[in-house]
Amino acid sequence: MKRAVPWRNLALATAGVALLAALAWVALRSGPMAPTRVTVAPVQRATVAPALFGIGTVEARRTFLIGPTAAGRLLQVPVDVGDLVQAGQLLAEMAPVDSDERVAALQASLARAQSARQAVDAQRDDALARQALTAANLRRYTDLADRDFISAGALEARRQEQRSADAVVSGADANRAAAQQDQARLAAELAGARQQRGNLRMLAPAAGLVVSRDAEPGSTVVAGQPVLRLVDPASLWVRVRFDQGRAGGLAVGQPAQIVLRSGPASPLAGRVARVETVSDSVTEERVAQIVFDRLPAGVAIGELAEVTVSLPASAPGLVVSNASLRQLGDQTGLWRLNGGSLHFVPVIPGAAGLDGRVLVTPRPPPGSHPSGDKPGSAPAGASAVAPASAPASAPASVALAEGDPVVVYSEQALDGRRRIQVVDRLAGAPP
Asked: CB–CB of 44/63 below 8 Å?
C-alpha cells in the first residue's frame, strides 16, 4: 500500500514551479535577457531643405577712429557717446600751442616777399628802359660811324653800354625769378601751417554714431591715438561662424533669418553679404557676414545673434531621421527591420535640414551582394531574434527603398543579434 503524498509538499512544489516560471518571465521581459525596445519609422522619398545655423555678433562694416595727427593736449570734445553727428561736424580739437603765431609769422613773411617782388619788378622795368635807350643810341652811333662822322672808339663805348644794359636786365630777370620762388615757398609753408592748424580740429568724415569716447579734455594724446570711435549705423551686419563641415553650399545672396538676443520673439530677415575666404583652422569654422534687409531700431553693436541661412533644396531622394544614423565600426548606416530581423545598411549621409531629416544614399560594404528581396515590416509589439549565423556587421541585404522601416531610437546599442520589441515611443525619447 503506497503512502499518500502530503498535500503540503504538493503545495510547496507547485509554488516553487510558479516562482521559477515568474523568474523566467521577468528575466525574459525585463531582465538582461529581455528584448531591446526600439521605435521605427519608414524611409521617405522627399527633398531636404538644408540650412546652416550659427551664432555671431553685431558689428559695423564702416568704423572711423578719430584722433590727432600730432602729439598734443586735448582742448575740447563737444560730442559724447550716443550722439548722431553729420559729415564735417567738429568732434574734438587739440590745443594750438604756437600754431596761430606760426601762421601769422608766415603771413608776414609772405607779405614781405610780395613787396620784395614788386621792388624787383620795378628794377627790372628800369633795366629794360635803360636797355632800350642804349640800343637806340647804339643804332644811331653805328649809322654815324658808317658815315665817318664819329671815331671807332666812340662806337665801341656805345657797344659797351649796350652790353652792360643787357647784363643788368639779365640780373633783374634772375632777381625776379628768385623773388617768385621765395614767394611760392612762403605760400607753401603758409598753406602747410594752416593745414596743420586745421588738423587740430577733428571733423566727422561721414555721418555716424559716436560709440566710444577714449580721451577727455586736458589729456595728452599722441599721433594716431583714437579720441573718438564713430560708426555708420546703416552699415551694421552680423559676423557669424558656421561649421566647416556643413558650410559647403554657403554663398553670397542666400536668405537668412536673424534672431537678436534682445528680441528672441522677433526674427529679422537678412541675406549673406560676404563669405570670407580664410577660415578658422583651430575651431574649424567658416566666417560670413549677414546684413539686415531692414535695420531694426535700437540694435546694439556687439549684441549676440542667432542666424539661420537657408540653402538650396536638394534633389529628391531617400530621407530618414538624423537619429536613425548609427556608427558600426568605421561605417555609418541604418538598422533596417527586415522580416523581424535587424540588418545594418551602410549609407552615405548627404544634405541635412534643421528639422532633423537627412538625405542618405545606400553604400554596400566591400564584398557584399545586395539581394532583391523586398524587406518586410514587423507589427508593433512583435519581437524577433536575428539569425545567429549572420555576423553583426554583415547585412543580409544592403538595399534600401522607400517605405523600409528603420530603427530611430533604441534602449541599448544594437548589434544585429539582440531580441527587439517595436514600440510606439520610448521613455525620454522625443515625440
From this structure: no
